[in-house]
Amino acid sequence: MQQIIDNNILYSKEYKIEIGKPGDRFFYFFDYDDRYYSINMEFQHFHSFYEICIFLDDEASHLINGVLYDMRCGDIVCLRPGLLHKTVYPEGDPKKRLIIQFSLPPMFYQLDRCMKSIYSIFDEDVPIFRFEERYKKAIFEKLNDNFHISGMVDDLTTLKINNRFLEFLGLIYTYREKNIYSNEADFDPITSKIYKITEYIHNHYTEELSLDMLASEFYISNYYLSHQFKRVTGFNITEYIQMTRVRNAQSMLVSTDEPITEIAFACGFFSFSQFNRVFHKFIGSSPSAYRKEVALVQKTSLLNNEDVD
Fold first, then answer.
1. CB-side exposure of 153: number of CA atoms within 13 Å?
2. How confident is the model over 138-190, as pLDDT tens digits?
3. Strands 67-71 and 95-103
């Protein structure tokens, strides 16, 4: 059933707009749905494409590179490829949201310069946007247009959706100075300190990290830090450090041609054998097998695109 959320955003549970698929040079995926506490991801993940998460309920949070951000209805999270993140849904009733995933091919030179400006919204230190009503209305009007356009399929549907979506991104960029987002996540002092530590890990995962070092850096006993870190994150410190390194290594394996040994050292591992062992522990395959598998999927997608062309 179609609803209007926050007086601005059209929503219909389980409604989707799909053009292409992940791995294609050009694709869009709009997913209108809700999510429960029970499906919260265990650890932060990344994508090889751009993603926008729009919250359509209050009482949810978003974890980005170890920092937990409080979210309100209508907030827009702009996630660049490779950025570690996960949504955190509270216990209780399901929470509505709209996920938009997309990838766009390079454009003509002048348009490409414009797109570089638009993509800059994904590179903000805090890539979360919250706008006053008048700006919010203009921005979400473009998504509402796409909601209607997707239900009236003709030869120009894909072009219309693409144009409206670019206008949507363009308005976020145009109004970026009007962003009023502030993180109002409210924690007890020890939980706040744990999130400071997770942020530190994400910013320093290429360096030598340990329980002793972090306890000293943040003036907390080893035992208390170990206990509280597990309570807040669900991981012990060694696991969290290793997963952060592995996720960043995965991103490099997918997005670069760097030798695997160089990726291992660039992500904070101190030997290639350690990298192989830890990667296999969490991912279930070796780094080389993972890279080959992703490359095969991308090659298959490219060949399918050429067949369509």
1. 3
2. 999 999 999 999 999 999 999 999 999 999 999 999 999 999 999 998 899 99
3. unpaired
DSSP letters for 279-298? HHHHHSS-HHHHHHHHHHHH
How much is the pTM? 0.91
Determine how β-strand 128-129 pairs with β-strand 76-79.
Answer: antiparallel
| Phi, psi of 19, deg, nearest 5 | -130, 115
- Integer Cα distance of 289 and 209 in angstroms: 27
Q: Which two tokens stand for residue 282?
A: 């969490």
The token duo for 217 is 């850096």
Rounded to whole angstroms, how far apart are CA atoms 174 and 118? Answer: 9
Phi then psi dihedrals of residue 42, to 5 deg: -70, -45
Domains of the chain: 3-178 (2.60.120.10), 189-296 (1.10.10.60)
| 229, burial (CB in 10 Å: exposed 0-12, middle 13-18, buried 19+) | buried
Q: Provide the CB-side half-sphere exposure for 291 (13 A, CA).
A: 19
Residue of 117, 204, 134, 216 lying closest to 169 (CA atoms):
117
Instruction: Find the Cα–Cα–Cα–Cα dihedral 270, 276, 279, 282, rounded to 10°.
Output: -120
Nearest to 291 by CA among 251, 246, 262, 264: 251
87 close to 60: Cβ distance less than 8 angstroms: yes
Under DSSP, the state recorded for 151 is T
SS3 180: coil
